[in-house]
Amino acid sequence: MAEWTDVVGAIADVGTVSIAVVAATVAWHQVKEARRLRIEQASPYIVVDLQSNPTSHKFVDLVILNTGKTTARNIRFSFTPELQSTLYPHAAEPRRISEYPVLRDGIPNLPPSGEFRFLFEFVVEHYQKREELPAKYEVIVKFDDARGRPCDPLTYSLDLSLRWSLLRLGNK
Question: Please, which residues bridge with residue 140 across strands?
Answer without folding.
Answer: 78, 155
